[in-house]
What we know:
Elements: E1 4-9, H1 14-23, H2 29-32, E2 39-41, E3 47-52, H3 54-62, E4 68-72, H4 73-78, E5 84-88, E6 94-100, E7 113-116, H5 119-128, E8 134-137, H6 144-147, E9 153-158, H7 162-166, E10 170-178, E11 180-184, H8 186-191, H9 193-214
Parallel strand pairs: 1-3, 1-4, 7-8, 7-9
Antiparallel strand pairs: 2-3, 4-11, 5-11, 6-9, 6-10
The structure holds 1-O-pyrophosphono-5-O-phosphono-alpha-D-ribofuranose (PRP).
1-O-pyrophosphono-5-O-phosphono-alpha-D-ribofuranose (PRP) binds next to β9 and α7.
Amino acid sequence: MAKVKIALTKGRIEQSTIQLLEEIGINCDFLRNKKRKLVFQSPYDDYEFILVKAVDVLTYVQQGVADIGIVGSDVLYEDEREPYEMLDLEIGRCQFCIASTPDYDPFDYRRKIVATKYPRTAARYFQEKGEDIEIIKIEGSVEIAPLLGLADAIVDIVETGDTLRENGLVIFEKMMPISTRLIVNPASLKRKKGEVCQLVDQLAAHIARKKETVK
Ligand code: PRP
């Protein structure tokens, strides 16, 4: 069996991804006690894992350094590259939302300023609504932008809603659902077809089974 390299997203979806892999029988204990290490050769099977930032998952897969990538659809939607997506892992579910302070008026005639980590997504969304807005790109802690008067509203991902609540913001519009996806390097799919497809099939069957049990 050829070694399969998998790029995992650090942070938010890391634990649920590891859990999903373990549910299909891939022992990931070395990923759970990882300290600050970022590249892991599985001592159990022919998998190598790298832990990187979401947008870098795309880069590693695109460049063929990783065969498979696991990353949120928010990142895929925002990026201009179009990786080959094979599976919705149905974890890491959240939503793209428009949020602001309670006094925000979405129907105000003035040109809105929207702060976001996702400028392409926000631009596309408002464009489709036929609304011309100004976008300010922010790298993090977007929630403070309307509080401090930098923007009228934000476009951001909302999972539990805790960050919004704790900062006194409310959701004005749910834009689209987000979940974690499995992407594949097309050359890897040819060269390591058996290995890649085996993993994808196992995951797909497991996800389908999980869905059946919650019905
Ligand atoms: C996201 C998002 C919000 C928060 C929402 O940031 O930008 O700040 O999570 O989650 P909640 O609804 O569960 O409170 P993330 O944690 O991904 O970190 P980042 O700002 O470093 O990108």
